[in-house]
Amino acid sequence: MLKVIVVSHGPLAEALMASARMVYGELPHTSYVSLSDTGGIEAFKQDFAAELQRVGSGADGMLVLCDLLCGTPYNVVCRHAFDPQGGLPMAVITGVNFPMLLMSADLLEGTDVQQAAQALVAQGCEAIVFAQPVETVQQDDF
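Structure tokens predicted for PTS fructose transporter subunit IIA (142 residues):
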């Protein structure tokens, strides 16, 4: 079983989780950690390490959905993900969005976190569209 942690600057991760509960119900294998103004970077480092330890126990892998490439949450997560001493396979995805979070619930039964990350990125990209009016063809036979 895979697990998911959503990380963000400010309350975005918490808000995504609250919205997901509204649409999908509980996401029992998904949690979040936020970088706050008051706690700062050191608090985020400790909070993420503690959450990784807590939810990673017994998992086959950890998907981490970050809000922003090269932001503090991303940098902290990557230190864990690419640590050769880290025992838990991890995949880090940036640009988390609401459809991506919802779709992650369907991938948790897998055991290959890298494969799940690739599938989630592909599905997340498909959910981003530029909405345009639909052209309708006028019927001539009236």
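DSSP finds five helices and four strands in the chain.
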